[in-house]
Description:
It is an enzyme of class 1 (oxidoreductase). The protein folds into 2 domains: about 5-185, NAD(P)-binding Rossmann-like Domain (Rossmann fold); about 195-280, N-(1-d-carboxylethyl)-l-norvaline Dehydrogenase, domain 2 (Orthogonal Bundle). The chain is built from 11 helices and 8 strands. It has helices at about 20-30, 45-60, 65-75, 100-115, 130-135, 170-180, 195-210, 215-225, 235-240, 245-255, 265-275, and strands spanning about 10-15, 35-40, 75-80, 90-95, 120, 140-145, 155-160, 185. The longest helix is centred in the N-terminal third of the chain and has 18 residues, at about 45-60. The site of 1,4-dihydronicotinamide adenine dinucleotide has 28 residues, from helix 1, helix 4 and helix 10.
Amino acid sequence: xxxxxxxxxxRVAVIGAGSMGAGIAQLAAQAGxxxxxxxxxxxxxxxxxxxxxxxxxGAVQRGRMTAAERDGARERLVAVERLEALEGCGLAIEAxxxxxxxxxxxxxxxxxxxxxxxxxxTNTSSIxxxxxxxxxxxxxxxxxxxxxxxxxxxxxxxxIRGVETDPALVPALHALSQAWGKTPVDxxxxxxxxxxxxxxxxxxxxxxxxxxxxxxxAAVDKLLREAGGFAMGPFELMDLIGVEVNLSVTxxxxxxxxxxxxxxxxxxxxxxxxxxxxGRKSGQGFHRYxxxxxxxxx
Length: 298
Ligand code: NAI
C-alpha cells in the first residue's frame, strides 16, 4: 500500500448509496475522480445518481458550478450492481448501515475484490475503527473518514486511526479531504469520536423534554434555531440525519461506554424507528414532510 498515490487519478468506490454514500460519491466526482457507486439494494445506486443529477442541476442554476463542471461530474459517476465491479478502485469509502458486523463483512469481501494497494475508509459515525478492521488480511489499510450530512456542503471531516491503521494514511487523507474542499480534523477512536459524542446530550435532552411533555418537538426546534443560534433544533436534525441512523449511533455509544446512562436510547425514538418514521427520507419523523400524512403520536 502506498497512500501517497491517492490523488485525483484514484478511482473511488463508494459502498452504500443512501444519504451519505450519494453525497460522498458526488463530492468525489466533483473533485475529478472516477467514481463507482454500489448498494446491496438493486436499483438504489441508480436512484442515487438521479438525486445527484438533480442536485448538480440545482448547483448550475444557482451559479455554484458551470454546466461543463456538472457534465464532467455526471460522466465520472457510475452506478454498479455487483461488488466485483469495484475492481480497480484505489480508495473504497463505506457508507452502509451503522452496525459492526455488516461493515466487517463488507470490508472482508472488498479485500478480495480490490488490489493490495487499495485504501479502505469507513464513514462510521460511532463504531470503533479498530473493530471494523478486525479480521482483515491487511487491517493497516483501513481508516475512519467521517463526513457530515450533507457531505457535499459540510466542511468538517473527522479522520480516525484504529490501533492497526498505517500512520502514513493520516496525512494522505488530510491532503485528499483538503483537495475535496474539506477541513480535516484528527479524532480519537473513542465512542462517537468527537462530534457525535458532544452532540449526544443535545438529542437526549430534547427527547427528555418531549417525554416529560415539557414542550413539543416543533417548539424546541424553533427556540433553539431562532433564539439559540443553532442551525437546526435536535428533532429536525435527527430527521435530517435519519432517526434510525441517529438511534444506531446512540446505541453504539451506549454499548461502547459500558451502558453509561447518559447515552441511554429514548423510548420515543425507538418507537418512531419501529414504525418506520425515519425522518425526511421516509416523509415523516418527528416532523412531517409530505402532505396528507398523519402526525406522529409522540
Ligand atoms: P442510509 O440508510 O441512508 O443508507 C445506507 C445504504 O447502505 C442503504 O442504501 C442500504 O441499502 C445500503 N447498505 C446497507 N448494507 C449494505 C451492504 N452490506 N452492502 C452494500 N450496501 C448496503 O444511511 P446513511 O445515513 O447514508 O448512513 C450511512 C453510514 O454513514 C452509517 O455508518 C452512518 O452512521 C454514517 N453517517 C451518517 C450520517 C447522517 O447524517 N445520516 C452522517 C455521517 C455518517
